[in-house]
Amino acid sequence: MLNKHPFQCALHDETGMCGFTPVVIVTVVAMALGWVTGYLDVILFPGLAVLLTLTLYRLSSLR
Predict the structure, then answer these.
(1) From CA 54, how far away is CA 17, in angstroms rounded?
(2) pLDDT band, very low/low/confident/very high, at 38 (cuts 50, 70, 90)
């Protein structure tokens, strides 16, 4: 039988569930990325300090 409904879902024809699932996934991913970005400074600032130290050391050894 050919289904003509564009948003046909395999779960007992529950089109609301199929439409709601991507919204839940995008929301959870956005919340997770928001949580992770709060802790990026713990990694990035020491990395910046190490790279600046190496750069200054290399520049001072060239003279």
Answers:
(1) 54
(2) confident
